[in-house]
Design brief:
Order of helices and strands of chain B: HHHHHHHEEEHHHHHHHHHH
Structural class of chain B: mainly alpha
Structural class of chain A: alpha+beta
Number of strands of chain B: 3
Helix content of chain B: 55-70%
Number of domains of chain A: 3
Radius of gyration of chain B: 21 Å
Largest interface: A-B, 47 and 60 residues
Radius of gyration of chain A: 35 Å
Number of helices of chain A: 23
Strand order of the largest sheet of chain B: 1-2-3
CATH class of the largest domain in chain A: Alpha Beta
Oligomer: heterodimer
């Protein structure tokens, strides 16, 4: 008792009180530190998180811009459909989660109530389709095929249908004006993927979940311009998603209009004539295989020679692009992509490749000139060319004696080019290249733009192939293992080839260079590459990037951004050689030329026509037909896989397209009133003050229009054809 | 013993007028600890604003009256202040005599909770519905009772001068008396309150000067008990979930994890100055559940920012610092123990509450003293303030 100090506490208690105090204040300090960490150090991060917590966006999709042809005819536009949508946020506020409203709605729309409920339920891993995988704050479409009567019923009794809207909404449509589907050139749309949304999140054109994205063709190339910008209204919401207010909103911008250089009328003719030519040739028997021609695929390109603008581009087989609208069905998708479909989604104009055959000879002739040969010297067009024990023959082993390179083009003489190709190969050192080997034939092919893209404004263009020494080496390295495994000395033809390839497939052999000189062997080209080359010969040597897009016009019509023609190079030969080539190609349609029989009655003095035929051999298949032609303004290149000869299969179709362009009948009489496009379309369609563009009327192509009209004839009509040749090959 | 314990306020001013008595140098008003009083008052008033902000949009709670919780909180504060005055007027020494009665009453009340009179709120069967919208949470008052009953027993022999430190027998008796209501509350189960009570018992034992062995033993058995309880699966799943989710909100993102995550977002988004009262999106959007009670600190974090919520910490610091001073300066062990018990209570409860708001402590249903909405808690903490004031007022003047 006496030990108790004045304060009433022992030192033990005193110390412990200090300990308590220290403990208490370290707890408070801990809290203060953590508070600083959350609010000051990481405050920004949490503020962002709070924002995404509280803000919900409602998106009004932008109307996608139209795609017009050169005169303003819509190739792709939008149609308005009556879309009935339900707002989940409104429905969920109701006591029965909107069940009564949805049941009433199902009654009006003639649907089953559970179908309506299923359409607006949110997708998650357990929910089977149909379900809504967009934002729950977005009005969810129940049907896009409502009738006006249904829409009126809903609109007139809003009190019975709270949260339900019936509105006109724009839906993509491909109207195929004048039956011109333009399917592969236009491409198609499909819904944006999660991956794309994430990828484009921080760019200046982010995707919205409801967006449709161009997947192919110009829909893809010009996707950004066509898509516009969706309007976004931002709502502040509480934890239950109830809207508390509206914050900053972005008004939408409609997509721009794309004017293309396609002329729907010419496109219609091209599509019809291509399909027709393929149909016709399927009735003919191939002399070599003894079967009817397969004509499995084909393409035709109509291009302006002085700009590279594509006037028409048709590819067979084709399809109706409207199958993509509203989501493609599994059945339709299979019919477009399965093995049996023969891939109608491919645009063979830019994605189909084959050996060029004789239309390659303009390149060989140019290569010879570059190698120092005179274009107008005489070269022996013998019946066949011998290489050791092998003999390379002319067509039907016909010789023409000593002729110029121009005549070699006219008669499509192989042996002249065999000899030139072989000589150059020997000069370069043969199998083992000299240090200073020129490889003129291969270099010239590359300089003409082969082996690389033309740069057309369509996606996924293929490059073709120039089988030069480097390619041979690389190809052999990639394949030698397989060849060596498969090869067998003295085995079947394929085994023997594989055996030889295994041993020396990396070598550029004499017969390789001989084949290459006439566009055979491993060389591959695309129709658009050949169109670019023939257009360049026509225009004096400029290799234009082919283009489909011509101008982008803002939705109000005030800004017109014209897409100027772009060139990617010049032909590697002088003006004189180009004139010589031109003359030679001109003689091809004149008497004696390989295409003459297809151009009987053509007004050669008024509209000079140049052409080169080609028949390319493909191992195991029937020959590929090529026909490359041009006038001063247009070049047309057509090819049919397994279609026979160039002039035979493609001749009439190409001529018919020219007839339609220039308003000619079969006899060569011109009627400009009937001419679709006697001169390239230089002006853009007129834009009205309100930003709309009038679409001129368009009629489907009538193939009979080119028959000779007796009322227009004064004298006796010349025969439509200059006489049927006996099985011409070229 | 009797000479020391029978002080009364009036004894200090026997012959003066009322005003003079209140203003005299040795008057009650002069001797009150004003920093504690003003801080507690400030916390309660700030609390009323935060509770108001959190509830004005919650029509399902306030039945369409946005001021309902504001008025109720102010009313609770008023009643709390009145209880404080009453406590000071009675004096903690007078109350010492009533401790056995209070203890008995407490036991009866918490037992009543387990009868059909009790109600379950948020998984804890810890409430007695009184009627008229009022309900009582007896465990709040049990905290005071435990402090008082332990202080009475532990201090009696020491204050009488019979011994320096409480003997083992007394300590053991104390622990049994404290364990009885804690055991009952554990059955509710109101784990949060039991945790606070364990800390109170620790604080009381420390301040009483009881042997180190008791203190360490208690800490050890606390840990062992926690392990045992978990191992034997005595905890409900919601309690385990709550515990786990504070460490990893992703564990239960739509349940407890959602709570802690939303709380953290609310506080973090406040930044330095906050969004301003009523301007917090997380608060007005009602993203944080239980925001007027357990998570009231998130309103301060979001709307008042680091400055405002730091000020709340500062006010709590003032209360605790002054309470520690009272514990150290009073001459009798009884007052020291009561004050230290209250310090342990306030400090731990505030730390646990704010800590769970900040995501560094597991979620347990504990209100923030003075600030959170809730009558029982408000009354209890103000009675505690009354006890602190009484200890200070009745401490002999050091001349």
């Amino acid at each position: 008792m006496t030990n108790i100090p004045e304060t009433g506490r022992t030192p033990r208690v005193q110390t412990r009180l200090v300990v308590i105090q220290i403990l208490v204040f370290s707890l408070l300090l801990t809290l203060g530190g953590r508070l600083w960490y959350l609010q000051i150090r990481n405050g920004k991060e949490y503020a962002d998180e709070a924002k995404s917590n509280n803000i919900q966006q409602v998106v009004t999709p932008a109307v996608r811009g139209s795609i017009l042809d050169a005169r303003g005819v819509p190739l792709a536009d939008n149609e308005t459909r009556l879309v009935v949508s339900a707002s989940r946020t409104e429905l969920m506020k109701m006591k029965d989660d909107g069940e009564a409203v949805l049941t009433r709605l199902a009654g009006v729309l003639g649907m089953k109530p559970e179908d309506v409920v299923n359409k607006i339920r949110l997708c998650d891993s357990k929910t089977p389709k149909p379900c809504w995988n967009g934002s729950p704050y977005q009005p969810i479409p129940v049907t896009d095929e409502a009738t006006v009567q249904q829409a009126l019923t809903i609109r007139e009794s809003t009190e019975d249908f709270p949260g339900i809207t019936a509105e006109l909404t724009a839906v993509r449509r491909y109207p195929a004006p004048g039956k011109a589907r333009t399917a592969q050139v236009l491409g198609y749309l499909s819904p944006v993927t999660d991956e794309e949304i994430t990828k484009a999140k921080d760019t200046d054109s982010p995707f919205l979940r409801s967006d449709q994205v161009g997947r192919s063709g110009i829909e893809r190339t010009y996707d950004k311009e066509l898509r516009g910008k969706a309007g976004v209204t931002r709502y502040e919401v509480d934890n239950l998603g109830r809207v508390m207010g509206q914050t900053k909103s972005d008004p939408g911008v409609a997509g721009s209009t794309l004017v293309t250089s396609i002329d729907a009328r010419v496109q219609g003719v091209a599509e019809y004539e291509l399909a027709q030519a393929m149909k016709a040739v399927r009735n003919e028997t191939d002399k070599i295989t003894g079967r009817k021609y397969e004509a499995d695929s084909g393409a035709v390109v109509v291009m302006e020679t002085k700009t590279g603008r594509v006037v028409a581009m048709a590819s067979q087989p084709d399809y109706d692009p409207n199958v993509w609208i509203g989501g493609i069905s599994a059945k339709d998708y299979a019919s477009l992509t399965s093995k049996n479909s023969n891939y109608p989604l491919l645009n063979r104009g830019i994605q189909g490749q084959a050996p060029a055959g004789s239309i390659f000879k303009v390149i060989s002739a140019s290569a010879a000139v570059r190698a120092g040969y005179d274009f107008n010297d005489k070269y022996n067009c013998s019946a066949s060319y011998s290489l050791g024990s092998r003999s390379f023959a002319n067509f039907e082993s016909q010789g023409h004696g000593p002729i110029t390179l121009g005549d070699a083009l006219k008669y499509s003489c192989n042996t002249v080019f065999y000899a030139l190709g072989h000589k150059e190969w020997q000069k370069d050192g043969g199998i083992t290249a000299n240090k200073d080997s020129k490889d003129w034939f291969y270099v010239t092919a590359r300089d003409f733009g082969l082996g690389s893209e033309t740069g057309i404004d369509l996606p996924n263009e293929v490059k073709g192939r120039i089988p030069d020494r480097q390619w041979k080496q690389a190809f052999w390295e990639a394949n030698k293992d397989a060849w060596c495994k498969q090869g067998k000395k003295g085995g079947s033809y394929v085994e023997q080839i594989a055996y030889e390839n295994c041993l020396e497939g990396n070598q550029l052999k004499a017969y390789d260079s001989i084949n290459f000189a006439i566009g055979q062997g491993d060389v591959l080209v695309t129709p658009i590459q050949m169109a670019t080359i023939y257009a360049a010969i026509s225009n004096g040597g400029t290799l234009y990037d082919p283009s489909v897009g011509k101008a982008v016009i803002s939705p109000d019509g005030k800004q017109v951004h014209e897409i100027a023609p772009k060139a990617h190079g010049k032909l590697p030969v002088g003006a004189r050689t180009i004139r010589d080539l031109d003359k030679g190609l001109r003689s091809v349609v004149e008497p004696g030329g390989t295409a003459a029989w297809r151009f009987g009655g053509w007004p050669q003095d008024k509209i000079p026509m140049r052409a080169k035929t080609g028949t390319a051999q493909v191992y195991g298949k029937q020959t590929t037909s090529w026909l490359a032609t041009y006038t001063d303004d247009f070049t047309i290149v057509m090819t049919i896989s397994q279609g026979g000869t160039g002039s035979g299969a493609s001749g009439p179709a190409v001529r018919n397209i020219y007839d339609a362009l220039y308003g000619l009948d079969d006899a060569g009489n011109q009627n400009l009133k009937r001419a679709l496009l006697p001169k390239p379309q230089t002006t853009l369609p007129k834009v009205n003050a309100d930003g709309t563009i009038d679409s001129p009327a368009i009629k489907a192509y009538d193939p009979k229009s080119q028959l000779v009209d007796p009322t227009e004839q004064n004298g006796a009509a010349p025969p439509p054809l200059a006489g049927t040749p006996a099985n011409r090959r070229d | 013993m009797t000479t020391r314990t029978n002080f009364s306020v009036s004894r200090y001013a026997p012959e003066r007028g009322a005003v003079a008595r209140l203003t005299a140098r040795d008057s009650v008003l002069r001797r009150l600890d004003w920093p504690i009083l003003l801080s507690a008052l400030a916390l309660s008033l700030i609390g009323s604003l935060l509770v108001w902000s959190a509830t004005r949009g919650r029509t399902e709670l306030n039945n369409g009256d946005p001021y309902y919780f504001l008025f109720r909180h102010l009313l609770n504060t008023g009643i709390g202040v009145a209880l404080m005055i009453g406590t000071v007027w009675l004096g903690h020494r007078t109350l010492r005599g009533a401790v056995p009665v209070l203890y008995g009453l407490s036991i009866v009340l918490i037992l009543a909770v387990l009868t059909p009179l009790g109600a379950t709120i948020n998984g804890a069967h810890a409430w007695i519905v009184v009627g008229g919208g009022f309900s009582l949470q007896p465990s709040e008052f049990v905290k005071i009772t435990i402090i008082l009953v332990m202080a009475m027993l532990l201090a009696s022999k020491v204050d009488a001068g019979d011994q320096l430190h409480p003997d083992h027998g007394t300590v053991a008796k104390c622990l049994v008396l404290a364990a009885l209501p804690m055991g009952i509350i554990m059955l509710m189960p109101d784990l949060g309150s039991v945790m606070v009570m364990i800390v109170i018992v620790l604080g009381v034992l420390l301040a009483s000067g009881a042997s180190n062995r008791w203190v360490l033993g208690l800490i050890f058995s606390g840990i062992a008990g926690a392990v045992l309880v978990t191992a034997l699966g005595m905890l409900d799943e919601y309690q385990i979930n709550r515990f786990a989710a504070f460490a990893n909100p992703d564990l239960d993102p739509s349940g407890v994890g959602y709570n802690t995550n939303q709380a953290r977002i609310a506080i973090g988004s406040g930044g330095l100055y906050g969004a301003g009262l009523f301007n917090g999106h997380q608060t007005s959007g009602q993203f944080v559940p239980e925001q007027q009670t357990d998570f009231v600190f998130t309103v301060a974090g979001e709307e008042l920012g680091f400055v405002g919520s730091g000020f709340i910490l500062l006010l709590l610091g003032v209360v605790l610092w002054r309470a520690c001073r009272i514990a150290r300066e009073t001459t009798e062990l009884y007052g020291t123990i009561v004050a230290a018990g209250i310090v342990a209570w306030f400090a731990f409860q505030a730390f646990e509450n704010i800590g769970m708001n900040l995501g560094i402590m597991p979620v347990a249903g504990l209100p923030l003293p003075f600030v959170s909405y809730g009558g029982s808690s408000m009354f209890a903490v103000w009675v505690a303030v009354g006890l602190l004031q009484s200890i200070r007022v009745q401490r002999p003047m050091t001349a």
